[in-house]
Amino acid sequence: MQRTPNITRRGAVASAGACLALALGACSSPDAAQDQTDERGETGTVSDRAPEGDEPQASEEPEEAVSEVDRIVSGMTLEQKVAQLFVVRPEAITGVETAVAAGETTRQALLDMPVGGIVYFAANLVDSDQTREMLRNTAAYSEEASGLPIFLCVDEEGGTVSRVGGSSGFGVDNVGNMCDVGATGDTDYAREVAKHIGTYLQYLGFNVDFAPDADIANNPESDTMRLRSFGSTADVVAPMVEAQVEGFAEAGVLCSAKHFPGIGGAMGDSHDGRIYSEKTLDEIRAEELRPFQAAIEADVPFIMVGHLSMPTITGDGDPATISSEIITDLLRNELGYQGIIITDSMAMGAALESLTLDRLGVAPLLAGADMVLMPEDLQAAYQGVLDAVAAGELTEERIDDSVRRVVRTKLERL
Q1: Does 259 sit behind a cis peptide bond, omega within 30 degrees of 0 on the bond before it?
Q2: 244, 254, 262, 298: which sits with the fewest CB atoms below 10 Å from its CB?
Q3: CB–CB of 133/36 below 8 Å?
Q4: Which CATH number applies to 18-47+84-413?
Q5: Taking Cα atoms as reference points, which of 297, 362, 332 lies closest to residue 85?
Q6: What is the pLDDT of residues 28-44, one digit of tens each?
Q7: Angle, CA 246 vertex, CA 243 and CA 252 arms, to 5°
Q8: How far apart are CA 112 and CA 144, in angstroms?
Q9: How far from chain centre, in Å, is Cα 78?
Q10: Distances (CA, A) of 343 to 188, 323, 360
Q11: What whole-number distance in Å separates Cα of residue 261 and Cα of residue 284?
């Protein structure tokens, strides 16, 4: 197996100091007033600061933090609370074709709708300086709009899912596919890979990585997750997932185990339409759930639910992202997970095949999810949630429950 030259299997991973400064390029002082461009490249001057890069704090919740969370949530309007439950692409709130900067358009967009998070893709990320400035500005605008940090997210698993590693603008090697990491059987190496990824992401300004992949590639007839999964059994995958959750935490970046309850054995791709598993609850307890249990034991901040239909368990063809049997009964109650539950992208074919645009936010929240990722139509999904509260279908107490998890995580870990 060929490993990235930036990581030694048992050696230390470079920190975000001198080594990353060389790898990613020098940057201006985060406390200086930034000469910045807006989303379309127009120049303006604004006072700005970089987001803090502190290490995640322990999961124990001090009593004073509880009262602070309650104080913040009680002071928010319903509209502000609902906005915090969405993680979207920058284009969804700014209306620009491809966002590569954060200027007045982003500022006004966050004042209008202070979303809980923004997720960036390769097209948004040009190079180190551009990315650092864009994320730094976005973080400052979020603080101005809501008084809260914002989740600045990316999909950076390595291998086929890499927005930064391997891109010519960043000078950071792609760490390779997780199937090769899993094949080493070396959890220390898996931890170092995650720490390395988290370190360069944290340097750029990201605070959430939608990784590691906790799926088990256990269907020889499906290759959908073959390269992204650590392996074909829970005995291989679970310890690798646990190690990577620890590695991301050491780097100061929040992470998300995905795609609950485990899509590695399903045929097809949920980007295109519904995917199915006929496994029973006892069968997935024995295998698919074990990597997620390992992630929970390692204090994973997010778990992402995939669009997997499990009719043997739920009694219908609805994907897990809108199933209370999967999200509330299994993940929240049986596994006891108390962190943030986020959906996979609600712009995927499996979601659009199941819901109208105005239900893309409502249905996951009714099922027990806390955050809705990338609905196909943000305005329709956002208004749909507000309408559902007005109609009594969703209670404000249910909204508050998820908002508290979001606020608590931001206060404790960002």
Answers
A1: yes
A2: 298
A3: yes
A4: 3.20.20.300
A5: 362
A6: 333 333 334 455 443 33
A7: 145
A8: 12
A9: 24
A10: 29, 11, 10
A11: 8
How large is the average pLDDT for residues 155-176? Answer: 97
Q: How confident is the model at residue 369 (pLDDT cuts 50, 70, 90)?
A: very high
Alpha-carbon gap, residue 163 to 156, rounded angstroms: 6
CA angle 400, 403, 408 (to 5 degrees): 120
C-alpha separations of 262 from 82, 180, 365 in Å: 28, 19, 20
- For residues 178 and 158, give the distance between their C-alpha atoms in angstroms, rounded to a whole number: 7
Query: How confident is the model at residue 205, as a pLDDT?
Result: 98
Token representation of residue 29: 């002082």
Structure tokens at 190: 């898996």
- Assess contact for 410 and 148: CB atoms under 8 A: yes
- Amino acid occupying residue 104: E
Structure tokens at 400: 């508050």
Confidence of residue 390 (pLDDT cuts 50, 70, 90): very high
Per-residue pLDDT reduced to its tens digit, 200-230: 999 999 999 999 999 999 998 888 899 999 9
Identity of the amino acid at 214: A
